[in-house]
């Protein structure tokens, strides 16, 4: 089985997000970038399946600017076999990304497509579901466990009421939750070997997909700063403080 894993380059989750002074978006210049955490769990799932003898090849694809090769190299160091960068400097919407991935799926014909359930920058949680619809493949989202069976997959997924287990045939699309596994940290030898693995760069314009945005972002602003807390000396003082806040809210 061939596995295709889609990964996204985002602002590192340990970095404090800053909005550009003009409110046009999030500042990314000079900011540390890394692989989206959910995508890392998807890569780890693919590598574990390959190590168990249930996959022969892992292809990693990312869509973004030239520097996005760094997240592909991270995936290759983790154990993926080859990478594809669909290069574009445009900030693409989720439908355009899903359409580009659908083109890659049509070319590569993987038995399984793995993605992170969402990206930590826009939190859209769209691409996996859109890709499944565009390719006509069954899907299982928010996966916390993946098992290959004789006829397909058995996927345990996180839902509001607990866990749900689905059986679905291959080929399929699965999106990874954080509980799926613990991603490995690639050692230096694996990082060095990753640079010798195949990595192809292709232009997004070559796929014949309409990449024009359908939404207009008028302004982005940071959330209000959280008010400082206050230490009280007794329950009575706490009750008085709460009562005062309630009165102010009612006055508004």
Shape: globular
Radius of gyration: 22 Å
Strand content: 25-35%
Give the helix proportion (percent range): 25-40%
Uncertain spans: 248-252
Largest sheet: 9 strands, mixed
Query: What's the arrangement of strands in the largest beta sheet?
Result: 9-8-7-10-6-1-4-5-11
How many strand elements? 11
Taking all residues together, what is the mean pLDDT?
91
Question: What distance lies between the first and last C-alpha atoms, to the nearest angstrom?
Answer: 62 Å
Tags for this model:
252 residues, alpha/beta, 9-stranded mixed sheet, two-stranded antiparallel ribbon, globular, disordered C terminus
Compile the SSE list and pairings.
Elements: E1 2-7, E2 9-11, E3 33-35, H1 37-51, E4 57-64, H2 69-78, E5 82-87, H3 94-108, E6 112-116, H4 127-135, E7 139-148, E8 152-159, E9 162-169, E10 172-176, H5 188-194, E11 199-203, H6 235-251
Parallel strand pairs: 1-4, 1-6, 4-5, 5-11, 6-10, 7-10
Antiparallel strand pairs: 2-3, 7-8, 8-9
Helix pairs in contact: 2-5, 3-4
Could you explain how this protein is built, in words?
- It is built from 6 helices and 11 strands.
- It has helices at 37-51, 69-78, 94-108, 127-135, 188-194, 235-251, and strands spanning 2-7, 9-11, 33-35, 57-64, 82-87, 112-116, 139-148, 152-159, 162-169, 172-176, 199-203.
- The strands form 2 sheets. The chain has a 9-stranded mixed beta sheet, with helices on both faces. Strands 2-3 form a two-stranded antiparallel sheet.
- A hairpin with a 2-residue loop joins β8 and β9 (162-169).
- By secondary structure, the chain is α/β, with parallel strands linked by helices.
